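Hey, can you fold this?
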Amino acid sequence: MIVLEQKDQQKRKRGVILTRKGLQKLEKARADAAVKENNSFRYTLEEMSERTRLAVNTVMKIYGCEVGVDRNTLKRCFSAFNLTLETSDYRWVADASNRVKQPTAAKLQITNMEPEQPGGQVPLDSPFYLQRDAIESECYQTILQPGALIRIQSPRRMGKTSLMARILQKAAEEGCRTVAIDFQLVDREIFQDLDKFLRWFCANVGLGLQLRNQIGEYWDDLFGSQVSCKMYFEEYLLATKDEPVVLALDEIDLLFPHPNLAGDFFALLRNFHEEAKNREIWRKLRLVVVHSTEIYIPLSANKSPFNVGLPVELQPFNSEEVLALAKRLGLDWSTEDAGRLTAFVNGNPYLVRVALYHIRRGDVTLEQVLETTSISAGIYGDRLQRELWNLQQEPELLAAFVRVLESSKPVELDLVEAFKLQSMGLVNLQGNQATVSCQLYEQFFSERFGSSG
């Protein structure tokens, strides 16, 4: 009986996962290779897949340290970075189909990886990205539907671009062609002319699809720029291949200060979406629209893309999510610690990540982060000065914010001012009643403007 049990146990050894030492060893080799061979850019999952000749899913399993893989697979991954796989680099798991229980070895191993410096999109393969399971699952299902439209809206630095990137990644894995257009890259003069803007738009979509610029052949002054743009999509961009096209439009609210252009362009996007209900060619186009502020320009209800499709509004992290991220970074925090940081920055994902990054590196302690007397010289100093500069560029907006700052009660603001301040993350809104968004901003700006509120 004992012999049979031993044999049965041996049979159930179906895979290996990295030990802490093995993960550190592989991660160091990857980082060194990135410096020497990839201009210091972190290798993406796709680049890791190409280098190791392993499927992306397999690479994810190796770095996830949760699901067992074949030992030879792990050996191949190590060899791709001129490493020799040693017995101390891995351990056997009972069944390759069973996940290793969390939180144990897998999370402990993650803590020894250096976190990315906060700012911009969180890398697709980052183990420190905090998933929003319900939202992401719905987005992933929606984007695969013909003619889909997803609208992601929240203040700046809440994780919109990181979510957008993951939606595009999911779509690409399912065989879609994907293009991301960032309206921060539009030259100012292009916003002054609808025809020039739509040509720029079509050319950049074509560039993202790796198609030659054929605008001259499809643009017809007789029909006008909007019809020409639609023809270019219908007869060229969408017709060239059978695969669906997922088009993500980031920072689209930069069009709002140009209401005439914005109104025509948004009506065109709505038309694209509506055409999918009637014509097969347009079912291939799926849209992801990303913006930081509510719409404050007049749009006809039946010409707006902002009242159709799937609306997604990203919320601040709660204290449980902050605690989970802190533990993922290897910080021995309590629920109270997470709650204090959450309250201080109102759960703003970027501000949370800044604090955890510097605490993890040993630059500061939590107590020092929360010390209000040194805020302007602390880890948030550069960000706070940037927000101050942004406000000073618009005196009326600054005056509106000071009113909120000096009041002990919610302040009613002009709708446009309220939306702009909310998009900057400086206020919370209930209707157009504004309050300062967090203790960090309240303390810093109160000192600057002599508020006693």
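Oh, and this one too while you're at it.
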Amino acid sequence: MADDRTDPGPAARARMTEPFEAGVVVRDLELMERFYRDVLGCVEVHRSRVPASIGIPAGLGDELLVVWLQVPSGGTVKLIRPRFAPAPVQSALSLTARRGLSYLTFHLDDMDPLVTALAAGGARPLSDPVVVWARGRRISFWADPEGNALELVDQRGGVRKTVGPGRSN
């Protein structure tokens, strides 16, 4: 009898040819481009209008404008603005109370500069305290200006110290 755990699955047989991309549907494309560029350091690599003749049969709803942003460490975030503005994110729900994709994770050597930039760039912390220690790593969850969740992770070791009210380092 074959052991299913030894089968590498279709992904191993069909070689992936590009780094992973994540799509984020946005209401205000200019605001979100500025945030991902200025705060997270992403760089626009492509922009395309997807006509309704493609968007509808592809299951995307209608006409879209898509902006591909290269993440400094690799991979791409696609900001997707549909023809009709989507409903706002239900941010009152905890991340694990939502279905589907919950957040984008950014691995950093030191999250402190980004924590400061996120607050100044219109994001709000979801973690309490803002930076949490978990299994030798520091993590911090944020909502971008439209409420999409972002996770920061760094492997900085050392002694934990308090850096201000509600924030640990």
